[in-house]
Every structure is written in C-alpha cells, then in structure tokens.
Specification:
Largest sheet: none
InterPro entries: Uncharacterised_YpzA (IPR020314)
Protein name: DUF2564 family protein
Pfam families: DUF2564 (PF10819)
Organism: Metabacillus bambusae
C-alpha cells in the first residue's frame, strides 16, 4: 500500500469513527475518534509530499478539519 492510499484509508476511518461517536455521544467513542483524527494527521505529516499530490493532501486535510469540527460540536 502506498502512502497516499494509507492516508486516504486513515482519513476514511477517522470519518467513520467521528460519525459513530457523534451519534452515540459516548465519551469513549469520542476519545477513539479523536485518536483516529490524530493518527491520520500523523500519517499525513510523515508522508513524502510532492507537488503532484498536494491537491489530494489538501482535500484530505479538509476532511480531517471537518471531522474535528463535527466532533467539537458534538462535545458541546
């Protein structure tokens, strides 16, 4: 699996966990969702960035930002 597909899979996993956590409003699920977002960001930060991949990486970052926003709204 290459880095881009690993990033995409980690972002999708974070999205699913956030969706589940915001529906359940379970503190443990929210914690796991926060960890999934953090893990996806770590993978993105470790990746070898090239100009060709920048649009893809920007989109993935936007998706993670949306996840964070959704999670913070659910915690209020």
């Amino acid at each position: 699996m290459n880095e881009l597909s690993q990033i995409e899979m980690s972002v999708k996993a974070a999205q699913k966990m956030v969706g589940s956590a915001t529906m359940q409003l379970d503190p443990e699920a929210i914690h796991h969702a926060e960890n999934a977002i953090s893990d996806a960001k770590d993978i993105m930060n470790r990746s070898n960035k090239t100009g060709v991949d920048q649009e893809f990486l920007t989109k993935q970052q936007q998706l993670l930002d949306q996840c964070e926003h959704q999670l913070s709204e659910a915690k209020q």
